[in-house]
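Extended Data, panel c. Modelled sequence:
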Amino acid sequence: MRPSSTSPPSPSPSLWRDTDFRGLWAGQTASQLGEHTTLVVLPLFAVLTLDAGAGQLGALRAVGQAPILLLSLLAGAWVDRWRARTVMVLTDAARAVALGAAAVAGLLGLLGLPALFVVAFTVGALSVLFDVAYQASLVRMVRRDQLVRGNSALEGSRSAAQIGGPALGGALVSLLSAPVATAAGALFFAVSFVSLRRIRRPESAPERVAPVPERPGHAAPVRSRIREGLRFVTGNAWLRAVSLASAAFQLSFAATMTVYLLFLPRELHLTGATVGLALAATGPGALLGSVLAARLPGRLGHGVVLVSAAVLGNGALLCVPALHGSSTATIVALLAVNFVFGTFSQLVNVTVMSVRQAVTPDGMQGRAAATITFVGMGFAPLGSLLGGLLAQEWGLRTGLLVTAAGMMLSPVLMAASPLARLGRVLPAPREEPRPTE
């Protein structure tokens, strides 16, 4: 029998004594560090070295995010049929090779804007598979009543990557070169590959432990499995609300970040290293958010935490368009804004992930994660293009104000949904809230 969702959580040291969980945590940390380094390196290379315009930067970011829209549903169907650890190991290896090849091309003077588009798309596609797989891997490794603590630890590793990644990427591009910064990303993915390969606990193929929807002994066609994931998410009021709020957030956030990455160096006249430092400030905040996520939902209620944290985190970015110049006060203000945003956005992220995992059966974890990613992150490429267009047509300051204001739609949608009524104990899988009129 699977432990009840209402069972008292195990003390956190029990997870850290598990060598396999530590391997997953270390691999996730290295992989996220590589991803966050690369997410800063490629746009800064385009802006500072290739003198990319607003439209070109928006297109570059959209290309990197396009795999979320194109591959998320397929990734969910595949991960629910494969061993999650195998998916993570293979995608780490492939990302290391792709970025290593890009670094060599850069050293030879061949890493132009077209090559950046190819690299961004390739790394983005592999990251989609990895992100779906690591979420499913945690569910297969720990008990359900340990999910909040496990997610807190993994999201804490992502936060640590947010501290080091942007700062390291910005510093390497500014002080050395884009190829060196790209090679650093490849190295982190290689470290993650080695760490995940050392996990010794056997992981059964999902089809052997989950009921097969169609003929016994045969895997359901991919399209059928995708439809099941879509039906499950759309049929669950909590997951529908998560999907809608995520879509609103990701559309506005992608637009905001496109303008933001232009606003800092061109309007505030910050160097690449300072831009990296400003972005890295979200990391310490996210670490704090991960710690709070392990405690606040159980004390205040998951719904209260979700709505209030989204309001505070998203609202902080509305302060950025008011900044002028590159003075010390401006930099301190940027650090404060990013710290607040990192804290509360991470609190939302961990809480949402725990809700999603708690209400989803084991055999549907990959597809549920992928479907929500598809609906939410699928709007990110459009947001990036929109941000570039607004910056080009309305100017950087006005464009940033409009896109940041759009992020407030996400907490409004959560407040009007069943998510806002979630209490201190998460519901069990398959349990549905009664519809309200």
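Residues 259 and 400 are 6 Å apart (CA to CA). This feature is highlighted in the accompanying rendering.
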